[in-house]
Every structure is written in C-alpha cells, then in structure tokens.
Amino acid sequence: MSRALVVIPTYNERENLPLIVARVRASVPEASVLVVDDASPDGTGYLADDLAANDDAVRVLHRTAKDGLGAAYLEAFEWALDRGHDPIVQMDADGSHLPEQLPSLLRALQTTDDAGRPVDVVIGSRWIEGGTIENWPRHRELLSRWGSAYARTMLRLSTRDATAGYRVFRAQALRAIHLEDVHTRGYGFQVDMLWHARQAGLVVVEVPITFVERVHGRSKMSPMIVVEAMLKVTAWGIAGLFRRSKPAGAEAVRG
C-alpha cells in the first residue's frame, strides 16, 4: 500500500492545528498530512507552513478563498491521487475527530464484506452501536440525527451516519466516484460523496467513533447551511425516482 494521506481542511483553526497534526503524526506515524487552508485571516496557513518546514510528512495546499468544505476536499483528493497516495483520510481540524481512533478506521479498510469483497470506504460513525458524542447540545444531536435519517430515506442509503466527516477512501474508490460529478461544496458534500459511492457500487462500512465538540474556535455550521443541504438531498432523491440507478454498493456496520 502507498503512503496514507490525512487531509485536514482549515479556516481560522490556528489554535487547533498544531495539536491535531501532532496527534495524527503520533497515532499514524507512517501517514502523511495535507493541510488545506482557505486563506484563513487568522494566519492558520502561515502556521501550517511552519509545521511543514519542520516535518517532511506535512504538506500545505493554499487556496485563495473560502469556497466551501467540499471544494477544499475535492482539490485535496485530486492532489492526493496525482501523487499516488492511498488510502486518503478526511479529518476535521477542530479536534472533533480523534486521531487516536484512526488506526481502527484504517484496519477496517483491510477487511471484506460478507460477500468477500474488499471494503472501499470506511465511515467513522456516531450513530451506530458503540458510537458516542461528547459535549454536544441536544439540538445539535437531534439535527444531525435527523439529517442522516432524512438522507437515508430520500437516497435509499443504509449508512447510519450519512453526514459523518471522518472517512477513509481507497484511491480507486475516489476514482470510481468520478469526482468531477460531485458538485456540492457545502455541508451536503458528505452526503453527496456517499450517494456517489452507492451509485458506483462501492463497499461502505461504518465503525464507531467518539465525536468530541470543539474546545477552541467557532463552528462553521449554521441552520441555513443545513437547510440548503437538505434541499439538495430532496432534489437528488426526487431525481432518482425517474432514472434507473447503477447496482447499489454494500453498506455495513463494523464494531
């Protein structure tokens, strides 16, 4: 297997970035890290450059504007594929995704489903048995659960945590998804990627994680972002009723 790459998008994460990068490097020392900064006004990008200057396994991708989480990930995925990284990990910079749990996600990628097919995508899930959240207000939990349930219903997904952002992809899985067809740039990007994975017939599994609310900085989430995402999910679901899907991939839960 080629060297794994952990992609960490940032926007005003100066307080969180050094610790999260250090924890990733300690938890999975064989992996590289790519910080994708959207021209953070607080200087996160410059700090990322300092981290890279002191660690050959850290790279920085500077973007010129805040253009959405999806846009940052899509550019990072292309960067990773061009350089032969495999697998490729999504991880938040705010500490909500515990780097110490990354080894369990990577191990799940080395397994097969009940039909003996290799796993293509691993989801770090909050909403399966063994998954937990810490320090989230009740309304945030209910909103996340509702969003995942709605996406599952509209798009016929079996993944319990459809909006999860802690994910591992095989390089060939990202190629099969056809990233040029993924147009969502905001909160709905996670569902969009999962939907395309299903359409491509990929094997998706969930493993339980502990999700921790950020300590430093402010969440970029807002009610309007969620509403916009759910409107897109509704449109995808309605469109899917009028065309035949490709064979669905297998989606499973791993404890």
UniProtKB/TrEMBL annotation:
SUPFAM superfamilies listed in its UniProt record: Nucleotide-diphospho-sugar transferases
Glycosyltransferase found in the keyword field: yes
Residue span, Glycosyltransferase 2-like domain: 6-175
Transmembrane regions listed in the UniProt entry: none
Pfam families hit by this protein: Glycos_transf_2
InterPro entries from the UniProt entry: DPM1-like, Glyco_trans_2-like, Nucleotide-diphossugar_trans
Domain of life: Bacteria
Gene3D superfamilies: Spore Coat Polysaccharide Biosynthesis Protein SpsA, Chain A
Keyword set includes Cytoplasm: no
Keywords: Glycosyltransferase, Transferase
Family assignment from sequence similarity: Belongs to the glycosyltransferase 2 family.
Family matches, as PANTHER family: DOLICHOL-PHOSPHATE MANNOSYLTRANSFERASE SUBUNIT 1
Protein name: Polyprenol monophosphomannose synthase
Originating species: Agromyces allii
Source organism phylogeny: Bacteria, Bacillati, Actinomycetota, Actinomycetes, Micrococcales
